[in-house]
Every structure is written in C-alpha cells, then in structure tokens.
Specification:
alpha/beta, Rossmann fold, OB fold (Dihydrolipoamide Acetyltransferase, E2P), six-stranded parallel sheet, 14 helices, 19 strands, globular, binds S-adenosyl-L-homocysteine, binds iron/sulfur cluster, binds FE3-S4 cluster
Length: about 450
Amino acid sequence: MSKYFHITTYGCQMNVHESEKIAGILSEMGYCACEEIEDADIAVFNTCCIRENAENHAYGNIGMLKKLKARKKDMIIAVGGCLPQQIGKADVLNKKFPYVDIIFGTHNLGKLKEFILKRQSGKKTVVEIEDGDGVICEDDKPLRTSYPNAWINITYGCNNFCSYCIVPYVRGRERSRRSQDIVAEAKALIEEGYKEITLLGQNVNSYGNGTDDLTFPELLEKIAKLDGKFRLRFMTSHPKDFSEELARVISENRKICRAVHLPVQSGSDEILRKMNRRYTATDYIKKVEILKKYVPDCAITTDLIVGFPTETDKDFGDTLNLVKRAGFSSAFTFVYSRREGTAAAEMEGQIPEEVSKERIMRLVELVNSQTRAQSAEYVGKTVEILCEDFDKKRGMFLGRDEYGRMAYFASEKNLIGKFVNVKINAANGVSLTGDVADISE
Ligand code: SAH
Ligand code: SF4
Ligand code: F3S
C-alpha cells in the first residue's frame, strides 16, 4: 500500500524551495505526494515567522490537525522551518501542540529521515533544533514541483540585521555555495528542460564575499552564457550592494530577465537609518538611475513597510514620493510587525494599528494605480510569455513575460514549458489577457 506525504509551505521562495528538498527526502523514503492533508501519513508544516500573521497562520493550521491525529494515530506531524528556529519557540510549539511528532529547524532539514525513523522507533516527540552557522548542504535532491521554473540557492543566511527583521536570527550567518556547484546545477536543470532559473539568496549581491573566486555579477554572467533557451532571474538584491557592474551584466546578457526586485522598505532617511538599511532615499534613487541607464526598460519591484516605530506622516509621505519617483511596476506592502529579539522590537514609538492600516491602504492604492497604468500600456502589444501553469477556474493557461507581468490565454494544446507569443487584448489590474499569436519554442 502506498504511503503519502503532504507539505504545507509558508513564507518566501526560499521556503518553497526547501519544501522541494523535504519532498525529495520523503519520496526517497517511499512516500508519494497527496493533495489532501487528510490522506497523508506524514504531514509537514514548513513555517515562516517573518510577521506575526505568518506565525498565526501556521498555528491555526497545526491546531486544526488535532482531531485528524486523534482519528489517525499513526500519522506523523512534523513542524519545521523558521518558526521553531526562533529561540524558545520549539518548546512553545511542543507544549501548545502535544500531538506534533517532530519539531525541526532550518539548518537540519536534511536530517528529516533520521527524525522520522527515530519517532517510528518509539521516541515520543523528536525536538531537534541546530545552530546552523556554516551549514551548506550539497547532497540534497529536491523533488521539483514547479516546472518550468527551478530555484537554486546561491547563499544561505543573512548578515545585514535590518532592525525589524528576524531572518538573521533564524537563518544564521551568510554563507555562499561554491560557484562551480551552482553553475553545474543550473546546467543540469537547463539540460533537463527547465526554462526559468531563479538564483536565491537574502542578499544575492553579496554572493562570494571573499569565499569564492566569482562575484555575483560574474556568477550571473557565467550562467547566462550557458547554452539553451532559458530565462534567468535572481532575488533578492539589497540596494546597498547593488552595483553598476550588475546593471552592465543585465544589459549585455539577454537571458537575464529585465526585472529587478530591489526592496527599499521606506522613503524616509530617518526611518531607513533606524531600520539599519545603510542607504538613504537619494542613494536608492541613484541606484535606480544607474540601472535604468544600462537597462532603460527594466521593471523594478520592491518591498515596503509602513508603521515602523516613530514613522510620522511626513516619513510616510516620503515613502509615497519615492514610490512615484522610482516608478515601481509593483510592490509587496507590509504593516510593520514587531518581532521579539530584533532591535526594533525595543524601540520607543510603536505605531498604533489604525494609523498603520490607514497608511497601508493609501500606499496600496498608489502602487496599484502605477501597476494598472503600466498594464494598460500592454494592450495591443505582442509579448513573449513563458507558459507556467493552467488555471482550472478560468480554464486558461498563464505565464509571465520577462518583466514579470502575468498573462492569461486560452489554448487547446498543453503549453506549459513553452515560450508563447501572446497578443494582449485586455489589462485588468496586475494581470493581462490575450490570444496566442505563435509558439516560439
Ligand atoms: N532579504 C530580503 C527580504 C526578506 S524578507 C531583503 O532584504 O530584501 C521579505 C520582506 O519582508 C522584507 O523585504 C520586508 O519588507 C518584509 N519584512 C521583514 N521583516 C518584517 C517585519 N518585522 N514586519 C513587516 N515586514 C517585514
Ligand atoms: Fe532581513 Fe534585511 Fe537580511 Fe533582508 S537583508 S533578510 S530584510 S535582515
Ligand atoms: Fe523566508 Fe519567512 Fe523564513 S520569509 S526566511 S520563511 S521567516
């Protein structure tokens, strides 16, 4: 009889890819993936703790399994990822959810098989959290679930300690994989038929950092020069380390998508200083100008936080101004969430929720108006879309252009993994719809 696993993933792309690594371990153990958690013999929650609501979301879902576990006594429930990696949180989880079988962290997910065998051999609850500074796992075999897209880690961890952020505490110090391993992985994926490679790191621009011969732009260029038709993306770029050299490499290599995610967080110098971002609004705009000088059509997206401690109406106004000046094509917007253990958690001047809510509504409205205006310019144009998926509800295929804009289109044939030229006939907010003109590859 087949045994099944189910993974619930929260948080960033890094976590999505780590869930693929967890799936790789479970499938090597003979488990198959299932759609419904009720059918699972092993249910894994790969958690995130970047904001309070990410944590609560996981708590809610784990809580809902209590009844199922009471019925299915042999089911194994495992909780991993960033949430248990926070100091003291593994114990909190263990007390709150006594029916959870395994609690592990971000640094030891490669040992999940060992933890499962331990639990099955009779140990009550397996709680294993490691301090992972320096851990780089090279022997994982991810079960990739996102064809034609594939993610590759290039760095792990973060050294920046932005004052609001929990990531450096739950992911450890920044370390880079060896460039030859990264290039070999990219080459193998392209040969297997993957069409879009995304290089992942909390701050890809600091790749290498003295431990590898290649800098980030050099690594990117080396991968972009590999044979085959594919797209290359990377995330995330920290503005303080974004270089002219990187802008040049993007402009000279057509396989690199002309889309850069460059999180600014705030447009106020005072808030940026308190956030420990190490650039001013003017520095940021200069980076945008350098990028636009080399790659005039580059789409720039960003992350923004409102309601950081002490943020005044004037600070918030500076953020609105910067959003207009930088011309972002879209943005992720967040209400500041106090994270225990970070520097900002101890700052005076925490902002009341209703003030933050009002600000974020205004910010979202501004960002959406820019996104809508840029979408409208697509109507009548033909763009190359990499078909990535089929939307059952709409009955249409979907994919993105190199700038990251989503488009829907109908087709009788399965086009997933194909580059398709689509004539855009309507723009609705963030996404576009159109008709297939021809299929290039
Ligand atoms: N390493 C990336 C981002 C990682 S977290 C970078 O530096 O850009 C993704 C985003 O979550 C951040 O860019 C930030 O906008 C947001 N974020 C991080 N901590 C937060 C917090 N405490 N409250 C609200 N948003 C937060
Ligand atoms: Fe967090 Fe800053 Fe590191 Fe990004 S660069 S992960 S926001 S500490
Ligand atoms: Fe990612 Fe959330 Fe961890 S954003 S690094 S999964 S805290």
